[in-house]
Design brief:
Radius of gyration: 22 Å
Order of helices and strands: EHEEEEHEEEHHEHEEHEHHHHEEHHH
Bound molecules: iron/sulfur cluster
Structural class: alpha+beta
Number of domains: 2
Distance between the termini: 52 Å
Oligomer: single chain
Number of strands: 14
Length: about 375
């Protein structure tokens, strides 16, 4: 691991300047319409200074912090997915000429994003999507963006009410896969412990007015991570989870959750790993051109499982079971990793507060009760 250095808070804009000078477009947390979301960042004042976010099942609030932390929130409501895998994208355009059509694939020239403030669970989510989009069937658009992305991670200084990254082994500390990683230290002088993880990250650090980190700086950062690890809002017991769900496909809990689930698809939209899409052809009225668009879809949509003659998963019970079993079980068979990184967004943003950790616990507990009868 690279030796750590210290970047004083007053020099933070120097990092943004170094990113933009290299042609990156910094994207990071911004406060917008009562939520922390990801958006363009030009100066430190664009960050949600002194703000935090309170999460629980179906509940989200912005609150003031007693300090001027730049990254003192838990997790934005949206994820990096929208930049790497946009919600709407045109795949190709067909143009009619002399009685036939010429099809041109969409030209791809994405910006070079610097993702600023990537949490450990979010980097894990990006890696999960990497397995989907860079594997046997590489996705042109995803890879065009992903190849040039610079990742500036920020270790968590607190855990939100719906966080359970420690259960999923994805956080709260970034260990690799970043270009730069920061830990915001607020005791005494406001400063950042910073490390590089790549040659590009190291080049950027050479341009900044850094001082070597002291043992006290490193100890403060380690204590912070330990504190966060011990204060997760949620816990999910993953022991044997694949078989647990496979063995309980007919469990009565699926009927119970179906009475609460609205099939609104919020959980899949906010989930940083969900990747289901649909395609739509849009011809012009004169028939001269047609376009094919790709749009995020959800396994909670009735039409998503339409094959021929009708949808396969007609009930909400079947759709919730499909989603949760895919996340926590079949994803492991499909991609060799869990589809859940423990970010908790699906819990916070479910309008009726359905909680994936509670649903697993209910199945596990009731199975244990049956086993002892
Ligand atoms: S399933 Fe929920 S907790 Fe897991 S990664 Fe998706 S949104 Fe986050
Ligand atoms: S679990 Fe919640 S967020 Fe997901 S579809 Fe059902 S009601 Fe909507």
């Amino acid at each position: 691991m690279e030796a750590a250095s210290v970047l004083e808070r007053r020099n933070f804009n120097g990092l943004l300047d170094a990113l933009t000078a290299r042609g990156y477009r910094p994207i990071g947390p911004v406060l917008e319409a009562g939520r922390i979301v990801y958006g363009p960042i030009q100066r430190d004042s664009d960050l949600p200074i002194g703000k935090t976010d309170i999460h629980d099942g179906g509940m989200y609030r912005i609150a003031d912090r007693p300090d001027d932390a730049l990254f003192g929130y838990n997790l934005p409501s949206d994820s990096w997915k929208q930049y790497l895998f946009p919600p709407h994208s045109r795949l190709w355009t067909a143009t009619k000429s002399n009685g036939s059509f010429t099809v041109a694939a969409e030209e791809i020239d994405p910006p070079r994003y610097a993702l600023l403030g990537v949490r450990a669970c979010e980097l894990a989510a990006i890696r999960v999507q990497d397995t989907v989009f860079t594997g046997a069937f590489p996705d042109r658009q995803y890879n065009a963006v992903r190849d040039d992305v610079l990742i500036v991670g920020v270790n968590c200084g607190q855990a939100g009410g719906t966080c359970f990254c420690t259960s999923m082994g994805t956080g709260p500390q970034l260990t690799d896969g970043y270009d730069l990683v920061l830990t915001e230290l607020l005791d005494g002088d406001h400063r950042f412990l910073v490390r590089s993880g790549t040659a590009t990250g190291a080049d950027i650090l050479r341009e900044l007015p850094l001082t070597p980190a002291t043992p006290a700086d490193c100890a403060e950062a380690e204590a912070l991570i330990e504190h966060v690890s011990g204060h997760m809002g949620r816990m999910l017991d993953t022991d044997g989870i694949k078989d647990l769900l496979y063995d309980n496909a007919e469990h009565e809990r699926w009927d119970d959750v179906a009475t609460r689930c609205l099939a609104c698809a919020n959980c899949t939209m906010v989930c940083p790993t969900c990747f289901c899409v649909t395609t739509e052809d849009r011809p012009t009225l004169d028939g001269a051109t047609a376009e094919r668009w790709r749009t995020w879809d959800s396994c909670f949509s009735l039409g998503f499982s339409h094959i021929h003659g009708g949808p396969i998963r007609t009930s909400v019970k079947a759709r919730y079971r499909q989603w949760m079993t895919h996340k926590l079980a079949t994803w492991i068979d499909q991609f060799g990793t869990s589809g859940c990184v423990g970010c908790g967004r699906c819990i916070t943003w479910c309008p009726v507060g359905i909680d994936i950790t509670h649903e697993v616990a209910a199945i596990r507990t009731e199975e244990a009760v049956h086993a002892h009868r």
